[in-house]
Amino acid sequence: MIQQRPSAGPALPRAFLFAGLALAGCASSPGSLAYEEGVRVLARNAGAQASPAAIAESVNAVGPDFVLLRAAADSAWFAELADRTGLAMSGPAIEQGLGFAYLAAIEPLGDTTIAIPVGGGEVVVLHDALYELGEDVFLDLISFRADLTSDPHALVQAFLEYVATDVMTTAPLVIGVEAADPALADSIAVLLRPSFTPPTACGTGGETSGSGRLGGFRVFVGTPAQIRCEEVSHPAGDANALLARLVLRR
């Protein structure tokens, strides 16, 4: 269910949302990961034709800690994928036939799908999940869609306001952005800098094939003070999959 964020008035801090989920028993114990050596995050554009079995096979072959998934599919497709991978799923958030979901080796501390106003009557739907990897070590995954009619400046401004008011300041972010047009995606990338950048020039490889572009799905990480990319690649040469090893700064 998509929450509608009001266009005026203070937003409820997300910490209250997560606390409420935990008290209500809606969030499982987060567990822990060996984050000191980096977490392996797979971004996957599943398109509209791939079967859950095929995507699950590609995910299982990599064995990531986290998966950002974009697919033109229904909730049953996502549920089958989660079953086949054995990973915990956050979402899916589905709008106009396009869905975002996260798969992870641990349960989210809390998650939400929310529509935030952009201006001119437009809203952008975000899916947001917070994970606790260890004591006081967090990772936040956020995905949203930009349509052809979107004003990139207004869209990015609304997103940054959401991050400033609703996202833990100590949580680094991995962001997935679906853009209907390459020029729109490029504009969003420019406007997100320098806080959020694609995982390019990662490790010692310089500008690699891991450009953060997975068709119309782009990936960004940040802020640099909180997270750095050590390695990036396209597993098995798949242009619709991007695997990054990210080290979280404490």
Description:
This protein is α+β, with helices and mostly antiparallel strands. It has one domain (35-248): Deoxyribonuclease I, Chain A, CATH 3.60.10.10. 23% of the residues lie in helices and 38% in strands. It is built from five helices and 14 strands. The protein has helices at 14-23, 52-62, 75-85, 152-166, 182-192; strands spanning 3-4, 39-45, 66-71, 88-95, 98-104, 110-119, 122-134, 137-146, 173-179, 196-197, 213-214, 217-222, 227-233, 241-248. The strands form two sheets. Strands 1, 6, 7, 8, 9, 10, 11 and 12 form an eight-stranded mixed β-sheet that branches. A six-stranded mixed β-sheet has the order 4-5-3-2-14-13, with helices on one face. β8, α4 and β9 form a beta-alpha-beta unit. α2 (52-62) runs parallel beside α3 (75-85) and α4 packs across α5. The longest helix has 15 residues, at 152-166. The model is unreliable at 6-30 and 204-211 (pLDDT under 50).
